[in-house]
TrEMBL record:
<feature type="signal peptide">
    <location>
        <begin position="1"/>
        <end position="23"/>
    </location>
</feature>
<dbReference type="InterPro" id="IPR015001">
    <property type="entry name" value="DUF1850"/>
</dbReference>
<protein>
    <submittedName>
        <fullName>DUF1850 domain-containing protein</fullName>
    </submittedName>
</protein>
<keyword id="KW-0732">Signal</keyword>
<dbReference type="Pfam" id="PF08905">
    <property type="entry name" value="DUF1850"/>
</dbReference>
Length: 170
């Protein structure tokens, strides 16, 4: 009986330890799956990241620059692009600054805060990159094409690290 109680206590402690959040990560979680896969990139000391994609209609690059706040919110800092129209604004709203220079447009945000956002990985041959800490991650190769992912910054537990897909390559 003592051995069974001891084994149960060890199992409970181990389960608790495995579920304690331990490390900040950029997390991509499938949104349209009954058993969603988690892909992650461990966060280092750098708080800025960039998403660069080729606009599916204009076929020109869009560069979005973000910053992670201390409370793991995502602050959209700016968007840079070459074409106006569908999905790419030609003016600033309140709290934004719009500039046009040398055929490039920049939309800067004063305080655009996000908890998370959905990233769609289109099944077309255009670029979709996540740039962080001097590395470029080709999301078209790392994530499933035709799938949507909830993107957020959060602490992952050891269990989530073991179950997830480490896109850092380590």
């Amino acid at each position: 009986m003592r051995k069974a109680i001891g084994a149960a206590m060890i199992a409970a402690v181990l389960a608790a330890v495995m579920n304690v959040p331990i490390a900040d990560s950029f997390v991509f979680t499938e949104t349209r799956s009954e058993t969603p896969a988690i892909h992650y990139i461990r966060q280092s000391d750098s708080d800025r990241f960039v998403i660069r994609y080729t606009h599916s209609i204009h076929l020109s690059d869009v560069i979005e620059t973000y910053e992670v706040t201390k409370d793991r919110k995502i602050r959209l800092l700016k968007m840079e692009y070459e074409d106006l129209a569908i999905g790419l604004p030609g003016h600033a709203e309140e709290g934004e600054t719009f500039t046009a220079e040398d055929g490039r447009y920049t939309l800067e945000y004063e305080n655009r805060m996000l908890d998370s956002f959905v990233l769609y990985v289109a099944d077309i041959d255009t670029d979709l990159e996540f740039r962080y800490d001097g590395r470029v991650y080709d999301l078209k190769k790392l994530l499933d094409r035709g799938s949507s992912y909830q993107f957020e910054v959060r602490k992952l537990s050891l269990l989530e690290f073991l179950k997830g897909v480490n896109t850092n390559g380590g």
